[in-house]
Write a structure and sequence with these properties.
alpha/beta, 4-stranded parallel β-sheet, 369 residues, single chain, disordered N terminus, 5-stranded parallel β-sheet, Rossmann fold, 17 helices
């Protein structure tokens, strides 16, 4: 852990690469959970620098990517409803559902708008009292507090025409599902530092104990990631399984108390469908019954009749579970590009396919800086 104070020093990054290579007696398989980590690993060339001793598998760590088709279809349905406006983050507009994307629906007179935050959606509702404004809320635990604050603000301002279509997801249950799979090859995890900034890292202790896999919480600088990889490889070489926080400048054991308290006031944990995966027990958040007036599913009597995803040439399910890498999909870079995406992992700025397209189609230097 002595490397943590020099997380932006390229010389230390090179030293860490050498240390991991020297330590490894076999090729270990490690999954990074977060899409931001994936982009940092590919951008800096860490995955290639360690390819002989570590295989890095990219997990379902992009919240836009794992938003199920049913949520997209419900948002499209609402956007076509008279006097209704759907607001969401810009990335979500191009994510395909079973019958096109929100952007496709907009071309068919669907009423929607990209916003930077849930509070923008509250302001839209205040400025347009004649319309119902629905915010499509996506993201891991990290973005849930902003949604909760928007709901509280709307209640305080008595904004009756604001509601939330909630598709927030929780990371740890997905990790448990992957670790339990008969096809699992992962031997250790790099946990998402931004999620743990909110939740803390104590809840991962039970995961480590149950699956006997080392977990390192990391940040997003190359040296952050290399320290986490070194810690995991060290434990694997010593046949140990421990939880370690490699991101102490941002992550505390119990996380952000105020943010957690706000989320607990608004949300319950619920089973949640993830794109490319099954329904994950406790895999998401939903609004508590006392906030039913702000729950778009209840307010507009929405259903999950369109829950089953239509099969396409996109292999996003295999990519999101780390079964294959984006370059192993025959559509990658051909039918599927950022301009003509077949699936969410190419649409999202945090998607693994977008990362491979950006960093594996260009020559870049491996300076880890």
């Amino acid at each position: 852990m002595k490397y943590l104070t020099e997380y932006r020093d390229p010389q230390h990054a090179h030293h860490l690469v050498d240390r991991i290579r020297e330590l490894s007696t076999q090729r270990w398989t490690i999954m990074e959970v977060c899409g931001g980590q994936t982009h940092a690993l590919l951008r800096s060339g860490i995955d290639e620098a360690l390819s002989e001793c570590v295989e890095l598998i990219h997990g379902p760590g992009c919240p836009v990517c794992v938003t199920p088709a049913s949520a997209i279809q419900n948002a499209i349905h609402l956007s076509m409803r008279p006097h209704t406006l759907v607001a969401t983050f810009g990335d979500m507009l191009r994510v395909p559902g079973n019958h096109g994307s929100l952007l496709d629906a907009q071309a068919e007179k669907g009423n929607m708008k990209a916003v930077y935050s849930p509070m923008d959606a509250v302001q839209l509702a205040r400025n347009n009292p004649e319309q119902e404004v629905v915010f499509l809320a996506v993201g891991f635990e990290t973005t849930a507090p902003a949604t909760a604050i928007a709901i509280l603000q709307a209640a305080q301002l008595e904004v009756k025409n604001f509601s939330v279509l909630c598709s927030h997801v929780c990371v740890l249950p997905a990790m448990k599902l992957l670790a339990s799979s008969k096809q699992n090859r992962v031997q250790g995890f790099l946990a998402a530092g931004h999620v743990c900034t909110l939740t803390g890292f104590e809840e991962y202790a039970g995961f480590v104990e149950q699956f006997q896999m080392p977990v390192a919480v990391t940040g997003f600088e190359p040296t952050d990631l290399l320290v986490g990889i070194l810690e995991v490889v060290t434990q694997l070489e010593q046949q140990q399984a421990n939880l370690i926080n490699c991101y102490p400048r941002a992550v505390k054991r119990n996380g952000n108390h105020s943010a957690r308290q706000i989320c607990e006031q608004i949300f319950d944990v619920t089973n949640r469908q993830w794109r490319g995966m099954q329904v994950i027990p406790n895999g998401g958040l939903c609004l508590k019954p006392e906030w039913a007036s702000c729950d778009a599913e209840i307010k507009f009597s929405l259903s999950d009749d369109d829950q089953q995803e239509i099969q396409t040439d996109c292999r996003s399910g295999e990519i999101l579970t780390g079964t294959i890498k984006p370059s192993e999909c025959s559509a990658f870079g051909n039918q599927c590009t950022p301009q003509t995406p077949l699936g969410a992992p190419m649409v999202s700025s945090e998607g693994a396919c977008a990362a491979y397209y950006r960093y594996r189609n260009n020559t870049f230097t491996k300076d880890y800086s």
